[in-house]
Amino acid sequence: MTPQNFAELEARITEGYASLSRRLQQTARFLLDHPQEVAFATVAKLAEQAGVTPSTLIRFANSFGFKGFSEMQELFRARLVNELPNYAERIRAVRSATGETPDSTQLLWEFAEANRDALEALPSRIDPRDLERALDILDGAEIVHVLGARRSFVVASYVTYALHHIDKRAVLVDGLGGMHGEQMKAVGPRDALLAVSFSPYAEETRQAAAEARQRGVPVVAITDSNLSPLARSADVALVVLEAEVKSFRGLTASLCLTQSLAIALGVRRDKAADRDDRDRSDRA
Length: 284
Known about the structure:
This protein is an alpha/beta fold. It folds into two domains: 6-83, Winged helix-like DNA-binding domain superfamily/Winged helix DNA-binding domain (Arc Repressor Mutant, subunit A); 127-275, Glucose-6-phosphate isomerase like protein, domain 1 (Rossmann fold, 3-Layer(aba) Sandwich), CATH 3.40.50.10490. It contains 14 helices and seven strands. It has helices at residues 6-16, 22-33, 35-40, 43-50, 54-63, 69-83, 88-94, 104-125, 128-140, 153-165, 180-184, 203-214, 229-233, 252-283, and strands at 144-148, 170-172, 192-196, 219-223, 236-239, 244-245, 248-249. It has a five-stranded parallel sheet with strand order 2-1-3-4-5, with helices on both faces. The chain has a two-stranded antiparallel sheet with strand order 6-7. Helix 2 packs across helix 5 (54-63), helix 4 (43-50) crosses helix 5 (54-63) and helix 10 (153-165) packs parallel to helix 14 (252-283). The protein is globular. The model is unreliable at 93-99 (pLDDT under 50).
């Protein structure tokens, strides 16, 4: 059956990704990672950006039951209208570089604007049900083990700090001395792993998430694509698309998401404590 909306298409692509040919996998990654560009660009332009031929895009659409690429493209357009009401992302999809060499103030404005746009788009990219499922996992874990290597280490260290401040037991898997594998052995069956990684995906984080899944340990992933190897090992994947300026990617949206997770978890725990206090009072 042909997908009727973007969410159905995304789910079908994710489910069938492993069985696609290498070229179609390449196409899938591009389409799901750049939905705003896909909404309005021509087949020729998208093929050039994705590094495939126009016929590959058409073949991809046909493989998911569409008569042609334009029929599938309508789902991307509907998503943009329904889920992204601001114009910033649409404008960014058609902007081109001026070729000028910016001074420091111009760079500051560029980074600030790009990160602002990423933050504005963040809530519409996160499915509220996934957010609640992630909170359920973190809330139910005896200890939350947090892993983020290389660029993602900043996010992992912050969320560990934040969890400590809401009195949630958390351990940063920092891999000091190359000990990622050894530290993962301390993850118990009633714990959870919060793994953070973005393309090109740190191998130690990929291995840790896969190991946790194999052992039945719940995994919450913060990553940049539903097709990332981290997402495929996760019980819940929260996808964040960060701002990128002149090939430098930010972390603003990821830090905002982790801060929101920690505070939401703190609110949950505070409400639970109030209920316990009322129950004890009623029994007294």
